[in-house]
Amino acid sequence: MSVFEVKYRGKNMDFSELKNNAEKELDRIANSKELKEFSDKYLGKKGEIRKLFSFVKDLALEEKKVLGQEINEFSRVLEEKVAEFEKELKKEEREKREEGEKVDISTPGKTIEMGHLHPMTQVKREIENIFELMGFSIVEGPEIEDEWHNFDALNIPKGHPARDALSLGKTFYLKDGNVMRTQTSSAQVRYMKKIKPPIRIIVPGRVYRYETTDASHEINFYQIEGLLIDENISVANLKAVLQRFLEQFFQRKVEIRLRPSYFPFTEPSFEIDMRCTVCEGKGCSSCKRTGWVEILGAGIVHPNVIKNGGLDPKKYKGFAFGLSIDRPTMMKYKINDIRLFHSGNLKFLKQF
Amino acid sequence: MIVSYNWLKSFFNSQLPEPKKLAEILTMHCFEVESIEKKGTDWIINIDVLPDRAGDCLSHLGIAKELSALLNKKIILPAIKIKEKKEKIKDYLSIKVEDTKDCRRYTARVLKNVKVGPSPKWLQEKLSACGMNSINNVVDATNYVMLETGQPLHAFDYEKISKEIIVRRARKREKILTLSEKEYVLDENILLITDTEKPLALAGIKGGMGCEITEKTKTIVLESANFNPKLISQTARKLNLRTDASVRFEQNLDPNLTEVAIERVASLIQELSGAEIVSGIADVYKNKLKPWKIKLDVENVNNIIGIEIPKKEIIKILTNLGFTVTSSGKEALIIKVPTSRQDVVIPENLIEEIGRIYGYDKVPAILPCFSEPAQRNEDIFWQNKAKDIMKELGFTEAYNYSFIGDEERAVFELKAEELVNPVSNYYKYLRPTAIPQMARIIKENSKFFKEIEVFELGKIFDSRKEMMYLSGAILGKNFDSVKGCLNVLFEKLGVDKVSFSGIEKDNIWHKNKTSTIKVGGKIIGKLGSLSSNLVELLMIDDAIFFEINFDELQKHCSRKKEYKQISYHPPVLRDISGTIYDDSEIEEVAEAIKNSSNELLKSVEVFDVYKGKGIPDDRKSVSFHLTYQSDEKTLDSKTIDSLIVELINKLKQTINWEERK
């Protein structure tokens, strides 16, 4: 008697036939219900495999061992196949279910309300960051100034034509004779008195000018003034620092030119123009067809200002520059009216 | 200054560059050219002459001299031919200058037998090119010579004045009627040209009526003077009367120019009208201005500009500009400055001259050596941090003016420092608070937005002291949500010991809907609604406002933060409800709950406040969520029950808590 022909249910049974049948049935299974039935039939508590074992246990030891192993192997293979089949069927069923699920991806995104920083705060921070990376510390000063710090310290003494132009024409006065600062430079002289060179500072802040307001003139606006004092400072240094700054700010290669200008607190003085970024210098409406945009004022610090800061102008030289924050902000975002900055108009502010 | 290209050309023998090229050269080396425009056969160039050069460059000759230095071309000065009569000027006219500080020089000439009439075409054209109207040959000649030399000139009708010209200060309330037929009331700070009886002109600004040149004029007095720039500048501003003359006198005109200009204009009038020139010039010139010297170190020039300019080149540039240069030793130069260049007094002025003519485009860009790292600014750090937190809380940052107007001051009943010279009634006072401006933002934006959250971090002013304030306005949220926002702000800034309590009666704030904000026991701000009075006057929706003294708040800001151990045992939640006296503050109850519990109580949160039916009139009901949690074990309900009983007993005694079932 072959080991595969065993007595089963009182009959001789061919074990290999059982195996064949199982495989054939497995191939025909189409869904998880049929798989469950199959699994119960063969692997269940009252299934065929259990039956086989109960039959085997009465056999002789040698037979029991051989046949037992065979059945165990068969059971293991069958369990594996059922498990694999089950995984496959579940995946198919999930995919089928997914077919029926749908999100309309053309639905517009829901508006999320969040806060906004004023565009000038953002631009001011950007400018401050660039200068800080170049070693400039940020210093602030008071908005109400005495006349000495606002004018005299900056080499604009009484009787100087620039003093009249600024003090009689552009300055807000308080009853005690103090003024609303017309530039942030006054803080520079204060700082020079406190700190020994080398000095690298920028002074950002709100300044005041008596103006008839229109799309490009305001009574309150913002400036960043810079000052570098050391022993050997030249126009070449000024050129390099400001060019680097502009390149970082505009994130591109920048061409600048220095034009002669006049400020009482610097000598020589310059206007610094930047090659127009809109037309690449060909001439357009943004640069009034000149190909250049005036971007900041600068110069070598006047010896009198160095003296007013308590330093020896023979030993120390320096350069200073001033730029408005309003203008680059307007350039950056193409804002056409400076008055929007103080309008409190949320339709404007929420764009930034 | 409007300049004619053809006029400039007339000073040179050789060709000038094309107008556009010329404009570019001027812009890069002298003054910005604002516009150029073709007009007939001429080009009109609008040059923005820098203020320190107004003394010598508000003239065609001044610009021509600059071009001469830049292009290395010689200038041909206009010819002056004077034929004098035998009669002497002293028989016609005497000059008296009361204060030579006010009038540095007064030069006059007398011309007889003048035939006043229209100017020839060439003269009319030149004036018109420069934007001036032709009046008659005499007045046109004075204007022409002013545009040529920069020296303002004036002509009086000799028959209409007494024989003495006096330069003196005006008397208080003295009056003058100017040529534009406008009357001005004067004071002692104003300089006048007068005769023995009457004012003839506002010195350096405008001529007076009554002695002007007419068709009948036969004899004229020509004035070519030099006044104290400051005096002219202040008078022009005070009277709001800025003229071609005043603009020039406001800067340091060369007193030696008066003579050159008067000869030029006398010669021109003689040529135009056949006038006879009386012999001699009446000239009061006490302190003659002479050239001065500056020592210039060549090495210093190159150190400051940042490029090696050869000494030879430096000498050439300065000489071309009209300076006299002599060497002194190897590196030093002695520069003699002509009196036309009163703006040049220190070596740096000369360095500027050298740099601009040499060309800054030739200067390389060289980064300065690194010195020291930047220092962090604590004020800016905390301002930025606060702004970022407000933004994260959903607030939009606004900027408001530092000024408020009459209306805000009146409506809010504010005490505010007034500007001496406000631009208008809307911007008249330094703002003592930003709340009126915040209210305006709410009002103007509520048409378009149901929910508004705005803030500003800026200066406010209290009796001339300036303070940094954080102010805000919120529409569409209730008091406790805004208070919650501020709590987040304080927590993120590392500020603890914050408390809120009621306010006294106030003009701005609603007495029963406003709280003070205290840090460490000191009041640093307010949070709440505007008084009903203001809400009605302003016609705004009921919004919540706050203002916090940021200078004070910043003192309590801290970067310290410590990680708290996370418990892995489940928290147990319990609610308690009870009544307290109506005037008790809920914060204080929450504080009392914390104080009456042990460390197992992790959080106390108010979830309901109720007044009304079922609650006695003098009491209110409050409900809290309490969270208990242990770091070591899972808490059983028996432990919690006993803690709650103990808590309620304590609250009964301390804050008169009555448990509600």
How would you characterize this protein structure?
The complex is a heterodimer of chains A (about 350) and B (about 650). In chain A, about 40% of the residues lie in helices and about 20% in strands. Chain A is of the alpha+beta class and about 350 residues long. Chain A folds into 2 domains: about 5-100; about 120-350, 2-Layer Sandwich (BirA Bifunctional Protein, domain 2), CATH 3.30.930.10. Chain A starts with a strand and ends with a helix. Chain B is of the alpha+beta class and about 650 residues long. Helices cover about 30% and strands about 30% of the residues of chain B. Chain B contains 20 helices and 32 strands. In chain B, the strands form 8 sheets. Chain B has a 7-stranded mixed beta sheet, sandwiched between helices. The longest helix of chain B is centred in the last third of the chain and has 19 residues, at about 635-655. Chain B is elongated, with a radius of gyration of 40 Å. At the A-B interface, helix 5, strand 3, helix 7, strand 6 and strand 7 of A face helix 2, helix 7, helix 10, helix 12 and helix 13 of B.
